[in-house]
Amino acid sequence: MSDALSATPATRIALRRQGLLPRILGAVLLSFIIAALLIALTGHNPLTAFAAMLGGVFGSPYQIGEALNRTSPYLLAGSGVALCFRAGVINIGADGQIAMGGIGAAGVVLLWPGQPGLLSAVAAIIGAALCGAAWAGIATAIHLGRRVHEVLVTLLLNFVALLLVQLALAGPLGQPGAGFLQSRPLPRADWLWRAPHVFFHGGIILGVIAALALSVLLWKTPFGFAIRVTGQSRRAAAYAGFSAAGITWGVMLTAGGLAGIAGGTEVLGLHHRLIEGFSTGFGFKAVTVALLGALEPAAVIPAALFVGLLESGALSMQRQIGVPSALVVVIEGITMLLILAATVRRA
Amino acid sequence: MIDFLAASIRIATPLVFAALGGILSERAGVFAVGLEGMMLMGAFGAVIGAWASASDLLGLAMALAGGAAMGLAVAIVTVRYRADNMVTGLTVNILAAGLTTYLLHVLAGSSAIQVDPLGPWPIPGLSAIPVLGPLLFAHPPLTYLALLGCAGLSFLLYRTQTGLKLRAAGENPEAVFVAGSSPMRLRFTAIICGGAIAGLGGAVLSLQQVGTFTDGMTGGRGYLALASLIVGRWNPWGAAAACLVFGAAEAFELRLQTYGVPVSSYVVQMVPYLIALAVLAGLGRSTKLPAAIGKPL
After folding, report:
1. ipTM value
2. What is its subcellular localisation (chain A) (predicted)?
C-alpha cells in the first residue's frame, strides 16, 4: 500500500468525544444571535422575524409537509456524507451525485415507459441510486488511482454533473418548446407516494431508514468498525489489515447511492420532472447537516429536520415581513464555522 | 484571433488574482478552498463600495476588505482552532454566498445596483503598436495589476526573508519556530492577505467587467483558480499560465457559440472542468504539495 493511503490524512474531521451536544447547541444559539443582529440591521424586530419563521413552519399541516420535503434530500445525502467523513474521506460531491440521481430517475421513467406503477417506481429509485453511486465511483477511481485530493475531484465533478443535467434536458429527456430547461412531466402513476393531508413524500421515510441503517452499520458491523478505525488512524487500520482503498470505495459508493436516491426522490416526489439546477447547493447542505449531526448518521435526522424547518420557515418570513430568506444561509455558514472551531478534537 | 487572445486574458484576470491569493495561503500551509467565497465577497464589496462612495478606489478598498474578512474567518477557524482546512473553506464559501445575497437584498431591494465599469487604460505609445498594442497594452487597470502581482509575489516568495519564512511555515513549521518566528502568525497573515488579493479578483469580475453584482456571480471560478494554482505548482507565473489556459478554453467556448458550431454548448462548458480534472489526474502523485499543508500547529 502506498504512503498516500497508509498515512492518516493531514487534515481530517475528528470530533471530540465529550461535550459535543452543548457545543453544537451553543453554536446554533450564537449564530441565531448574530442573525438577530443582521435582522436588526434591516430595521426589523428580530423577535417578530423569528416568530414569523416559527409561524411559517407550524402554521398548517401543508407547511409541515413542505418542511419535511426539504429535509428529505438533506437527510439522505447528509447521512452518507457523515459516513464518508467518519472514514476520513471528505466527499463534497453530493451535489453532483444528487444531480446524477435525478437524471437516473427521470431517465428510467421517461425512456422506459408503460411499466406497471410499482415496478416503474422501484426501478426509478434503483436507477437513481446507481447513477449517484457511479458518479461517486468515478470520483473515487480518480482519487485513488491518480492520488488527486478527493475534495478537488468531487468539486470539479459537481460542475460537470450540473452541465450533464442540462445536456440531458436539451437532448433525450427534454420537453421541446418549454422555453426553459425541463423534462417532460412524469406520468402520475410514477410519482412517489405522498402522505394524505400533510403532503410530504416518501423521501423522508427512505431518509430515516437510511440514517438508522447507516448508524447500525457504523457501530454494529465489522465494516463500520473498519470505517471508524480508518478515520482515526490509517496506520492502525493498515496494521489491523483493513484496506484503506476498500473502505474508501465502500463509503463513497454508499454515500453516492444515497445522494442519488435523494436526487431521485426530488424528481419523483417533489418536482415530478427533471429541472435544470434542481440539485444546486444540496451537496453543501449535506455537509452542513452531517457536521450539525456530529457525523453520527442517526443524529443527522434531527440535524436535517432542523435545517429543513429553518429554511421553510425563512421563506414565509420573507413573504410576511420582507427579511430576505438568504439569512438562513448565513445562519448555516456561521453555525458550521462555530461547530468546526468548537468541536474539532485537538491533535 | 486578437479578439480571442484578448478575451482569454480578460477571462483569466480574475482567476489570476484568486490563484495568487491561494498560493500565498497554501505556501504558508493552509489549503485555499475558500477562494470562491473570498472572490464573491470581494466582488460584492467592490460594487457596493463604488456605488456608495462614487469612487472606484474605495470600491477596490472594499473588495480588499471583503476578501480579507473571509480570510480572517478561515484563519481563525483553521489556524487558531485547528479545524479541517477543506471543510472550513467550503463553509466560508457558503457564508459568503449567504451574506452577499442577504446584504444585496437589504441594500438594493429588488433593483439592481449599477456602477460604471472600470474603463481601459491604454498605455501611451505602446498601445499604438499594431497587433500587440490592442492585445497587451489596452486593458483596464486591474489586468496590469494582476501581472504586477505575479512579479511581486514571486519576488516576495523567492527573494525575501519573509518569503522564505512563509514557505517554511508551509514546509516545516517547527523550523520557523526554532528560528524565532511564529508560524501561526505567518499563516494568519498569509491567509488574510491572500483573501484580500482574491477579493481583488472578485472586483475584476464585478467592478471591472460588468459594473454590477449578481448573486453567486463567481460561479465556481474560485475552484478553477484553486485547480490552476496546483497545476502551476504553487508558482505565481505557473499558476497565471494555467489561468490563461482556462481563460482560453472559455473564450473558445464563447466563439463556438457565436459561430453556431453544432457542438452542444453544455459539452463545451464542461471543458474547463474536464481540463482541470485531466491535468490534476495527469500530474497525479507527482504534485508536490507543501509538506506541512493542512497540518494544524
Report:
1. 0.90
2. Cell membrane
